[in-house]
Known about the structure:
The structure holds 2 protein chains of 2 kinds. Chain A has no helices and 10 strands. By secondary structure, chain A is an all-beta fold. In chain A, strands 2, 4, 5, 8, 9 and 10 form a 6-stranded mixed sheet that branches. Chain A has a 4-stranded antiparallel sheet with strand order 1-3-7-6, with no helix packed on it. Chain B is built from no helices and 9 strands. Chain B is globular. Chain B has strands at residues 9-13, 18-23, 31-38, 45-50, 55-56, 61-64, 70-75, 84-92, 107-112. Classes of the chains: A mainly beta, B mainly beta. The A-B interface holds A 4, 31, 33, 35, 42-45, 48, 50, 56, 59, 91, 93, 95, 98-110 and B 2, 32, 38, 42-46, 49, 87, 92-106.
Amino acid sequence: GAGVSQSPSNKVTEKGKDVELRCDPISGHTALYWYRQSLGQGLEFLIYFQGNSAPDKSGLPSDRFSAERTGGSVSTLTIQRTQQEDSAVYLCASSLRQGAIGNEQFFGPGTRLTVL
Amino acid sequence: DAKTTQPPSMDCAEGRAANLPCNHSTISGNEYVYWYRQIHSQGPQYIIHGLKNNETNEMASLIITEDRKSSTLILPHATLRDTAVYYCIVSEHGSSNTGKLIFGQGTTLQVKP
């Protein structure tokens, strides 16, 4: 079956512009996560959605970052007024439900964002 | 911060077993040990998880010490395609936990022909 998909695969933007990154989770997965991976760094948690519950935004680095999840499925991560330090690979993952034992997360291929 | 410590890199000969260690000395009773790997330019991939018993699946085996302060991931017959960064993660479970993963730097495993 289809896995997690993300678009675009690559995005080059100019400093100060806004960008939107999209994630399509696996059908039926209620939990959705965004992570980012800067060059040579490990993965950093950004935000988490579970059903209709309030999202966990504890990992968002600044108020320029926001995310929404419409209809409990597709999610969009928006970065306003991009800065060069925002350059990274942004990864989306989904799982059947939050916190369940053995609830493996399935990751998408990521969006590589480059801010010039 | 990550709650685990792993060696930054390891080499393994193709066809031999790869044994990747992980220290998690501050692990709590309700935390599981997870292993993921990330092949170059791809998203992370789940491998295996365990609480206190040893676990085995089609990809690997997980050996957890009796005091649960360390574990070892074993790839029984490493292939070139197993070259990747391997992450050891501890994570709580339950409906009140988000299940978010806190990644450390991982171990870069290089499988050599």
